[in-house]
From TrEMBL:
Domain 3-hydroxyisobutyrate dehydrogenase-like NAD-binding: 271-397
Any single Gene Ontology cellular-component annotation: mitochondrion
Enzyme category, top tier: oxidoreductase
Reaction(s) catalysed by this chain's protein: 3-hydroxy-2-methylpropanoate + NAD(+) = 2-methyl-3-oxopropanoate + NADH + H(+)
Subcellular location: Mitochondrion
Pfam families for this protein: NAD_binding_11, NAD_binding_2
Cleavable signal peptide: none
Name of protein: 3-hydroxyisobutyrate dehydrogenase
Family assignment from sequence similarity: Belongs to the HIBADH-related family. 3-hydroxyisobutyrate dehydrogenase subfamily.
Pathway the protein acts in: Amino-acid degradation; L-valine degradation
UniProt xrefs under PANTHER family: 3-HYDROXYISOBUTYRATE DEHYDROGENASE, MITOCHONDRIAL, 3-HYDROXYISOBUTYRATE DEHYDROGENASE-RELATED
């Protein structure tokens, strides 16, 4: 007979101020202030164990029990009984407000691994939202700026996992992600049971699935959450996150992701976030080549590039590559084309993402002729010195041919 799965109720309680009493003779006000983290706002919600996580939903139960313990500990730490002398008919409201603000602003540390062009501004936005960061990057110089801000920096992903039970990774490729998670000094060497691991790298969906399985063995939850929007959106906190993983954990992930992005979309089980990102980047790679070809043709026909861009962006040819990330220098400000194609999204990364799309297309027997051609163009660019330039440098490449 099949045993009914257990349920764990995670209590989330809003701030409560109570125990108010006044003594007329001494005009003494006793305030019993009980403060809880602002994140625990929703009414009680049962957490359903997943059959995929084993008998009784072991991993999800571990996560829920750990979170419940954390919330109870937070409540005990933040409870304060304060007696204030009330001589002039006023409680020291400003002082009380400061105590409340400091207590409510207290947040548990978040590990962040990978502080490159995208990871750097993403981590900074977490700091802006009050989250202490425990940072790590293979290049020590990438951590220097965060050290100067007072951020704790560790030597390895394993050390991050030892100090934080919520970790975000932003890495360049499959090998990097595999090394950071299951390598000799990887996250899973010291990960705590119940930890939430969010990978915002763009990697093969199958690799995400394998990492999720390894994390589950250690009692942790892995979610893939690749991003779209580029460095500008990362700085502004306007990224789009495509999330794959256990649905019951989506809200916990969203709490952090909304600090870095304006759109957080749940796509389904582990790997679906990566699938959505690969499709998006294949279209982006194709459209950037098309935009560069179009702008180059128009310029050679005697059109002013700003005028041509204006026409395109009022017409059916409009796309992100034309109206937000135009590849022609001088057409718009704040984009890599205005900085000799430095910064932004490297050509080598676009070639890598299109390679992932080709693998997925082969595995699913999906014809992608334009995706294949785009992949070849970016690979040739990498071989001709454009690897570290932004992928919009395809305009320069076309002008040389």
């Amino acid at each position: 007979m099949r045993e009914e799965p257990r349920q764990v109720t995670v209590w989330r309680t809003s701030g409560l101020i109570g125990g108010f009493a006044a003594n007329r003779k001494r005009r003494l006000v006793a305030l019993d202030v009980t403060l809880f983290f602002a994140s625990f706002r929703a009414p009680p919600q049962p957490v359903e164990p997943s059959e995929a996580s084993g008998e009784g939903g072991g991993v999800l139960l571990e996560v829920a029990e750990r979170r419940r313990a954390s919330s109870m500990a937070a409540a005990l730490i933040l409870r304060a009984s304060v007696s204030l002398m009330h001589r002039h008919g006023k409680v020291c409201a400003d002082w009380l407000a400061r105590v409340s603000y400091r207590a409510m602003a207290s947040k548990t540390p978040v590990g962040f691994i990978g502080l490159g062009n995208m990871g750097n501004p993403m981590a900074k936005n977490l700091v802006k939202h009050g989250y202490p960061i425990i940072a790590c990057d293979i290049f020590p110089e990438a951590c220097k700026e965060f050290q100067e801000l007072g951020t704790q920096v560790t030597d390895s992903p394993a050390d991050v996992a030892d100090k934080a039970d919520r970790i975000i990774t932003m890495l360049p490729s499959n090998p990097n992600a595999i090394e950071v998670y299951i390598g000799t000094n990887g996250i899973l060497k010291k990960v705590k049971k119940g930890s939430l691991l969010i990978d915002s790298s763009t990697i093969d969906p199958e690799v995400s699935k394998e990492l999720a399985k390894e994390a589950e063995k250690m009692g942790a939850v892995f979610m893939d959450a690749p991003v779209s929007g580029g460095v500008g959106a990362a700085r502004a906190g306007n990224l789009t996150f495509m999330v794959g993983g256990v649905e019951q954990e989506f809200d916990a992930a969203k709490e952090l992701l909304t600090c870095m992005g304006s759109n957080v979309v749940y796509c389904g089980e582990v790997g679906t976030g990566q699938a959505a990102k690969i499709c998006n980047n294949m279209l982006l790679g194709i459209s950037m080549i098309g935009t560069a070809e179009t702008m180059n043709l128009g310029i050679r026909l005697g059109l002013d590039p700003k005028l041509l861009a204006k026409v395109l962006n009022m017409s059916s040819g409009r796309c992100w590559s034309s109206d937000t990330y135009n590849p022609v220098p001088g057409v718009m400000e704040g984009v890599p084309s205005n900085n000799n194609y430095q910064g932004g999204f490297g050509t080598t990364l676009m070639a890598k993402d299109l390679g992932l799309a080709q693998i997925s297309a082969t595995n699913t027997k999906s014809p992608v002729p334009l995706g294949s051609l785009a992949h070849q163009i970016y690979r040739i660019m990498c071989a001709k010195g454009y690897a570290q330039k932004d992928f919009s440098s395809v305009l320069q490449f076309l002008r040389e041919e």
